Amino acid sequence: MSTDNKRIKSEEAPLDSGKRKFLSTTAMITLAGAGLSVGVASCKNKENTPAPSSGEAPTQPAATASAQYGEFEVRPGQLDDYYEFSSGGHSGEVRVYALPSGRTLKRIPVFNVDCESGWGITNESKAIMGTEPDGSLRYKTGDTHHVHGSYADGTYDGRYLFVNDKIHGRIARIRLDYMVCDKVTEIPNVQGTHGIFPDKRDPVDSKINRTTRVFLGQEFHIPQPNDGRDENDPAKYYCVFTCVDAETMKPRWQCKVDGNMDLIATSYDGTLAASNQYNTENGVHYEDMMSAERDACVFFHIARIEAAVKAGKYFTIGKSKVPVVDGTKKANRDPKTSLTCYVPVPKNPHGVNATPDGKYFVCAGKLSPTATVIDLTLIRKWFDGGLKEPRDTVVAEPEIGLGPLHTGFDGRGNAYTTLFLDSQIVKWNIDKAIAQFKGDKTVEPVMDRVDVHYQPGHGFTSMGETKEPDGKFFISDNKFTKDRFLPVGPRHPDSGQLIDIRGDKMRLVADHSTHPEPHDAIIVKRDIIRTKQINDLNEHPLAVKNAKDCRVERRGKKVTVLLTSQAPAFGLREFTIKQGDEVTLILTNLDKVEDLTHGFAIPQYDINFVVNPQQTKSVTFKADKPGVYWVYCTNFCHALHLEMRSRMIVEKA
Ligand code: K7E
Ligand code: CUA
Ligand code: CA
After folding, report:
1. What is the chain's mean pLDDT, rounded?
2. Which residues are paired to 514 by β-bridges?
3. How many A from CA of 643 to the centre of ligand 2?
């Protein structure tokens, strides 16, 4: 780790927009601080935005607002046009919103424990999340950042979502027919699994035109293997890029890289994946990580990596059996056989996004006021030996504003980038940026700017990560909201601001509050998503298919309670077990009516879950407290919902 590389420059960065140049380390630290305090506390950089003092309710007249923005109103009883699938940050969940209304439809628990559904409480969910030998959950926390859908023919096929857990280095899959998580995989040899992206077709078999792999970037350097050795030997620290099989969700291979990784993008032809790298310095402290003027965007040649794995040219790390190929520069001197290509990009870049025409990847500069456009044809040319320097693949690098993070596209050749420090979305034209880069001084790539409130992180367009973006909406997911909503104490809500991007000028049309903290999301046309409204009774091998089958089975101290629910009653009015029993309770909801969900809670036993129509779930607990327990339905299901109870009697041993 290059701790000797702490260069501090003394010049101040110019703040006026005409002279925004690369920012020095000192200036960036000052500016990052100033950007926050200006944006959050006093809003000084927004001449056209009044700044009510913190804690005051906003005073815009509602009638004016609805007249102006009425065309996006979704009236009572009307349905929205889009689903938005959003990460929930450190809540560990995924959220489903409807657009343009911003209605919250669902929270999908993934890495978190959720007693609304019983996720992390039932045996079925615990088995997916992962347990310790004693049956307890291995982890109760998660940090979701990037949600992406599975692809077929370059667009979403509506089968799956994939989402990362940055804390514990995991990836999860959500099946979209039920909108529930069905797989969680802990990846070996990683820490800080940040960016993920599915491939869009197979890089090897051209007939497979759908997602078969998901790629993950590792953000934090760790000693490999990370088992207590080499903590103070920087040379032993490195990061790996991971490929997971989209069906089995097992890791297929890993690739050792120079530097770290952040977010991931994949090409529409399946051959390339890339990750922006902000810590090519291998720094330990932030000043080390921002010491170089340029970092990189590393490209992976998927077919070559898989050929190397096939040919046995790999090693393994510690106890892990996952094959690891060497993608470092040292091991890849000849482009014609290289597994990786490191394209220099200024400075601590954040976000890499693929243009819908399949031609370019765009890296946002974060600490540089630029976006870097990389031409994939030139990347392929470099891999074929036809280009000298990786940097020659850069075809544009427009100056767009301060703190660029993420970019969405409208399918008309325009890019929309979030500017964290400027609290703006900037619209810029890719062809114009390329012309400018070629030397045409008469073109200005920046087309428009709009203020957002405040400090946007991710931004994305409707269908913008498919080959069929519709160019209608952009969502700005903002990290700070201060005066935009009724105050709720020190912790403010975050927000997603809806921007109409159909015209030349962007138009901010709605503020949607969100629970902290949304990062990446996708906006999917509603007709792509087809959900099932009733579970399949036969899906669970232990389903109790008839109310007459309800009973208590005993094998020594192991007791199974088989139970059904059908409004307004459970299949047993009471059941008796003994203190010290290990009880497994299996509950099948026999109701077939859509939306007729029952709940099941046992006081003092800390059990609470729901069963949807025709669904079966189970819980296992130790009957350690003698007494009478009214187990009851928690979910309002019937006029006699409150009466829907059963009596669990635990006899004293
Ligand atoms: Cu995608 Cu938020 Cu994880 Cu940028 S990161 S903001
Ligand atoms: Cu069943 Cu309420
Ligand atoms: Ca850096």
Report:
1. 91
2. 494
3. 8
